Amino acid sequence: MTAGLRPVDVSRSVDATDWAALADGLDAQGCALTPRLLDPEQCREIAELYDRAELFRSTVDMARHRFGSGTYRYFTHDLPPVVAALREALYPRLLVVARDWAARLGRPAPWPDDLQEWLARCHEAGQDRSAQILLRYQEGDWNALHRDVFGDLVFPLQVVIGLDEYGVDYTGGEFLLVEQRPRAQSRGTTVALRQGHGLVFTTRDRPVRTKRGWSAGAVRHGVSTVHSGHRRALGLVFHDAS
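Above: the chain's sequence. Below: its structure in token form.
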């Protein structure tokens, strides 16, 4: 067990989520908030892992790469227990939505019931690096609109969990989601990420009903400028990186 983290059963909080309502939210906006998944102490413990370099495979300076401003770190495959548990508990719930979306768009649904089997397929395809992210923003930092697509194998949903309290630990720094609607102008959505709550959102695109049936609405996400304080978040991606 990663030192400094308490063992935790996250399945109870994941199971307590109204997944039918969450799926409706995803259909309406491309993102939807969960109830609290982590308590404030767990959030603090995860945020403090950022300074333990041995837990991460790489660090990205967003300004250097013109991704925005701020830094994030990719965990190694040896994930802290609570991070691994969250990913395992969320995957089968999100899988229901992923398969439904694939059916609407007439696409294959290559995702098996078991997360580890899916990750093994990613590794066989050359996507064998962990994509779990710990993000840290300070005053003035922001994240450009982007997609977390790291290869041909993509899971269509991901989750970000706020580790600090919006309006208390930081201001600004809202989550941004911009959808390019088929044959229409883009639509933007902003979400204040609450501490310990997860935001489920679209990785790449999602089904949007049009006069011609279902079309794929392309989606990108980012973070608005942090006006004060510090904003830290845990990103859970359900495919690995090349």
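The domain at 11-236 is CATH 2.60.120.620 (Jelly Rolls).
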